[in-house]
Amino acid sequence: MKNDIYKTHLLLKNKKVSSLELVTEAVKNAKNSKCNTFISLTEETALIEAEKCDKEKIFNNPLMGIPYTLKDLFITEGVRTTAGSKILFNYNPPYDGYVSSALKKAGSILVGKVSCDEFGMGSTNENSAFGPVKNPLDLNKVPGGSSGGSSASILEGSSFFSMGTDTGGSARLPANFCGIVGFKPSYGRVSRFGQIAYASSLDQASPMGKSVLDIACVMEHLTSPDPKDATNAKLPPMKIVHDLLSLKSGSLKNKKIGFCPEFISACDKEVAASLNDALHLFRKNGASVVEVSLPSVKNCVPAYYVIATSEASSNLSRYDGIHFGFRKSHQGNLEDTYCESRTFGFGEEVKKRIMLGTFSLSSGYYDAYYIKACKVRRLIANDFNEAFKSCDVVFSPVCATSAFNLGAMNSDPMQMYMNDLYTIPVNLAGLPAIALPFGQSQGMPTGFQLIGQAFKDEDLLMIAGGFEQNFSR
Amino acid sequence: MSVKVDDKLVLHIAKLARLSIPQDEVKSYGEHLTKILTHVELLSAVPTEGVLSLSNPMKDILLNSSASKDWGREDIVKPSLSSELILQNAPDQQLNQFKVEAVIEE
């Protein structure tokens, strides 16, 4: 599991290793997890698929025969899908969502479904009904959330890549806290069909892996147009692996990297030092680093929490104790069945967010909260449009600190939400962004993110690849 | 825009959200929501006169990109999952239908 996906693909092709060997090791590592990473293991089917793959010997794409994991928000036919929630503890989907079926088609092999904050609501992976996930690099620390199980599964060697989701930073933050790469594509680039909804105008399936090239290998299989998601961009599938493989040195020359100095100075000392080192490396390799201004971004946290919770309150109304999921048996009336099932089935953070969203959408408050937040969202998107007039990508912190201790953020909800300050603007504006590991703070990994223009995901990955090439970890 | 979420408002929101908040937790829900809404009040100071609200980035993005502007699909009937498959996750069922508590009082 030490190699990247592409190198492993070549080993498989040249019969230096078999898919069965890779999957057997992945399953073993999954079973030995010290981090509470998995909710469900798919050992039996994984081993059968691997054997089949070796027998047919058609390693015609880099994902064929490669073990991976899925955040438990992705619907998988016949494999329990919980969203990290008690309300779906026994939900066995009768169909595959887009991501699951696309990766199946590519021939990659599902090792299991990994834990996450319930419905993706959290930044630490402590809000899972199946218990908190720990950071494999230090078991006293959080892996970041909500896709914490995805990061952990990669570090523990139970997957080459994992599919997370990113609504306000949920793939980029755990990537940052665990020292791996997390990519949030443009809103609409990957179909959301079969991705359990938190906030539909912000949610995006997001691959996580050990390198930019790994991310590219996955993205090529996730970008077919899908009529089952009305917000899916009808663009041709991404072609980027070949370009990354033939990337020449000097590719960063004349690229313009925008940054806000105040974002960097607001970070912890060691994080800020790493960010400045990274900018220096861009300059050294011929890129020009220019200051940009994003004045409305400071309002992104309140705008996000109003918009995301409003959408969540609507999306989560489908959990009624009637159609699927948990029902609290009740001798009363239908109304009581709804209330009791939801009250018992949802965790604390989910209930708090449903309450906030219901408030924001309720009569008398709708204009002052929801509509106001949507106007501020427009201002944030306008800021980025303006910034991209003078740069190709925007460079930004992912988080002001490295991974914090388990339980450290439980007392103050606003302090917890403020951790998402640098990741949220990207989701509000629908842009692509990639978190790259670089440097350390407090003995834990840190890094930065590059934010690209909408639907210029390929350009963003090429710049990220160019940086990675000049800095081998 | 300043809102203090008192017990009455907590119970009203809970009713709308189909949640039952236990009596001994009503106060803490109110405090939590008040805390968040106090922070949200920062938004009221942002000038937004004449600004169009943005509820989903997709339409705007598409207008400025090379992607197809046609985000609808044709209204054609296609096969869907069988009722047996759908009902396999139902908490209770009878006669190939979802079974619920009585909705009509005797």
Keywords:
heterodimer, A: 473 residues, alpha/beta, Amidase signature (AS) enzymes, 12% strand, globular, B: 106 residues, mainly alpha, 2 strands, 35% helix, 4% strand
Structure, described:
The complex is a heterodimer of chains A (473) and B (106). Chain A has 473 residues and is of the alpha/beta class. Chain A contains 17 helices and eleven strands. Chain A has a domain at 5-245: Amidase signature (AS) domain (Amidase signature (AS) enzymes, Alpha-Beta Complex), CATH 3.90.1300.10. In chain A, helix 11 packs across helix 13 (348-361). The relative contact order of chain A is 0.14. The mean pLDDT of chain A is 96. With 106 residues, chain B is mainly alpha-helical. The longest helix of chain B is centred in the N-terminal third of the chain and has 15 residues, at 26-40.
- Which runs of chain B of at least 5 residues are low in confidence (pLDDT < 50)? none
**Share of residues in strands of chain A:** 5-15%
Compressed to H and E, one letter per element, the order of chain B equals HHHHEE
Radius of gyration of chain A, rounded? 21 Å
Q: What is the name of the CATH class of the domain at 5-245 in chain A?
A: Alpha Beta
Reconstruct the topology from this structure.
The complex is a heterodimer of chains A (473) and B (106).
Chain A: H1 5-13, H2 19-31, E1 38-41, H3 43-56, E2 67-71, H4 98-106, E3 109-114, H5 148-155, E4 161-165, H6 172-178, E5 181-184, E6 205-209, H7 212-219, H8 241-245, E7 256-259, H9 261-265, H10 269-284, E8 288-291, H11 300-315, H12 334-345, H13 348-361, H14 367-387, E9 393-397, H15 413-418, H16 424-429, E10 433-441, E11 444-451, H17 457-470
Chain B: H1 7-16, H2 26-40, H3 57-63, H4 83-87, E1 93-94, E2 97-98
Helix pairs in contact in B: 1-2
